[in-house]
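Team,

Forwarding the record for the chain on the shared tracking sheet. I've put the sequence and predicted structure together so nobody has to dig through attachments.
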Amino acid sequence: MGNSSGHEGVPGINQIESLVRSLHGWRPFSGGLTGVLAEDLTRESILEAIRAGRVYATTGNRTLLSFSLNDSHMGSELRLRAQERRHFTARVVADGELRRIEIIRNGESVISQTAVGSTHTLTWEDRIRTPGEDSYYLRVKMWDTGSAWSSPIRVRPIVDNRLSKGKSI
């Protein structure tokens, strides 16, 4: 989740912006925001989405983000067999110019697309199977050095321990 430490009562915007050091030099910092992927704007729906992990963070930019694996939203934990497909869909609508959209698996970028404009859709199928559990999240980078990150989707393998013709499979 993203937030700022300002006490001005305007989430994501500090009245007196501070400067932070980034890879691109000193830049204004206006705090972070948390986005919630909720069914509607009721208290119950928002709390349910937070508890389910359907949240993302930004560096203060007003970005809308959705990220799913096999139609299960960010924050989900799936149990899949090795042969089951892993189809990802991501959609980003930003308040500025997008630069790059990436899916990160187990800490490493596995698909990266250059984005043009303020809207981008990414679809991708992961055909690589790593031993054990996998964790995926979406990372968004903007030209003004703003960023956004989804909460992770975790995949736990289903291991088939049945015996087939005297051999374990």
